[in-house]
Amino acid sequence: MQPVNPPSPPDQPRLSKSKIAALEHCPRRLWLQVHRRELGQFDEATLALFQCGHYVGELARHRYAQGHLVTEDHLQVPAAIARTQELLTATIRLPIFEAAFERDGVIVRADVLEPDNWGGWRLIEVKNARSIRSYQVRDVATQVWVIQGNAVCLSAAFVRHVERPLRATSRNPTVKFIDADVTLEAQRLAQGRQPVIDQARSVLEGGEPDTKPSTHCDRPACEFRKHCLGQAGLTIVGSSL
Ligand code: SF4
Does 216 map to a domain? Predict the structure, then answer.
């Protein structure tokens, strides 16, 4: 199964699922992540939440009796993509964790790709969240757009979320997963990904966007609040930043 897309030209900046998500949250956030990354600073509570999210991702993997983890990291993208292709075309198909794909310079890592026993694959995004948020479905749509561009047959897409989100203070860290089928919505959104990706490139080619800080900065939490509020002559109330 060979990629149907040519590799991105060398002068085209690579994007990722999280960069596209940053754009859709706030164009200024994407710009700052790429051009002024050193200004980003998450508070301790948000960092603890990230750790819980990683732990929930591991738990989701451990629920499978068998599977392959693509261990190559973000500094080894070509090797991760090559390993993913090996696993996709293996005689015995098993779940793949952290499968890597590229389309038009956009890199994604899929939490879980599960064989559907009909020759296709189910895409699963794992979230430490009680309910599904619209930005999570857009994240799935970005993955669908990239993976389908690699001639992989995706038969379904799910957000695997939890009945009760895990927190650093949770006394009983048992996790019950719930699968939400987002196939139709993710497919619909995937058809509109190209303009979003074009917009991301356009934002990165320009100067720092003049987006004003507002309630959107906390949903989800943005690491540049201190910077943007400072520029606007404001300070964060009730935060360690
Ligand atoms: S703090 Fe708010 S305005 Fe600034 S980059 Fe983040 S989301 Fe955008």
Answer: no
27 assigned to some structural domain: yes
Copy the structure tokens of residue 141: 């749509």
Residue 121 near residue 165, CB atoms below 8 Å? no
Distance 15 CA to ligand 1 centre (A): 19
Structural domains counted in the chain: 1
Please tell me what DSSP assigns to residue 8. P
Domain span at residue 72?
A: 15-210
- Which pair of tokens denotes residue 161? 């979320």
User: What CATH number is given to the structural domain containing 157?
Assistant: 3.90.320
| pTM check: above 0.70 | yes
pLDDT tens figures, 27-48: 999 999 999 999 999 888 889 9
Is residue 106 included in any domain, yes or no? yes
Q: From ligand 1's centre to the CA of 118, what distance in Å?
A: 44
For residue 224, the CA-to-ligand 1 centroid distance in Å is 6
Tell which atom from ligand 1 comes closest to the C-alpha of 228.
4
